[in-house]
Amino acid sequence: MDLLTSHAGVFADGLLTSLEISAWTFLLAAAGGLVLAVCRIAPVATLRWAARWYVNTFRNVPLLVLLTLFVFGLPEIGVLYPLFWTVVTAMALYWAAFFCETVRSGIRSVPRGQAEAARALGMTARQVLTHIVLPQALRRTLQPTASLLIAVILNSSLAAAVGVTQELTGQTVLLDQRYAQPLTTFGAAAACYVILTLAVGRLAARLERRLVITG
Fold first, then answer.
1. Which of 64, 84, 88, 129 has the most CB atoms around it within 10 Å of its CB?
2. Residue 102: which residues within 8 A CB-CB, separation 6 or more?
């Protein structure tokens, strides 16, 4: 217990870095996934094919392999970025494929008749998508999106494997190497992840109830 209290700042800094990685990854992946989902339902065959290829490719590559490829492979061809943003970019590209399928499933859940009625009223295809379909689709995918955010938070620990030792798991590994108390150090890290994911789940549940009431 003395180890935890004397190094509380280390865990706090690691947790903050993990949250930064997760937040940026989530925002970029959500934006990319939304664009991919629109491409997957677009009337242009080339866009549909490209989006489908992207999703099928990235969903079938292990995240750790992708991180390793970006962190250690890109410098070999002269592409250099700060380690933090290299990791965020790789994770965002990976999770965008999953966000795409989540949004697409939400779009499919919207009754087709609503889009047809909107077009009959003179709305353009873009207006139908942005004002009718997407708002309902995003509303219906709140829980799956929360599950993806939880997955992003948990998998941010893989950043430690490619050199981001400032995040929570990386700091925990360093403490364990120094003090050889894995039960204490990794137990504390596990507790932090549990608290974070439970908080996300509870927040999503509250938002969902509010949307039901206001909807």
1. 88
2. 33, 141, 144, 145, 148
Query: What whole-number distance in Å separates Cα of residue 139 and Cα of residue 91?
Result: 24
pLDDT of residue 116: 66
The CATH number assigned to the domain holding 63 equals 1.10.3720.10
Q: How many domains does the chain have?
A: 1
Crossing angle between the packed helical segments 142-155 and 182-214, to the nearest 10 degrees = 160
Instruction: State phi, psi for 124 to the nearest 5 degrees.
Output: -75, 170
Q: What is the pLDDT of residues 82-116, one digit of tens each?
A: 999 999 999 999 999 999 998 888 777 766 766 66
CA distance 167 to 156: 8
What are the DSSP E strand ranges found in 58-151? Answer: none
Q: Is 17 helix (H, G, I), strand (E, B) or coil?
A: helix
Domain interval for residue 110: 2-214
Candidates 111, 88, 73, 78; CA nearest to 164 is 88
Span 54-69, pLDDT tens digits = 999 999 999 999 999 9
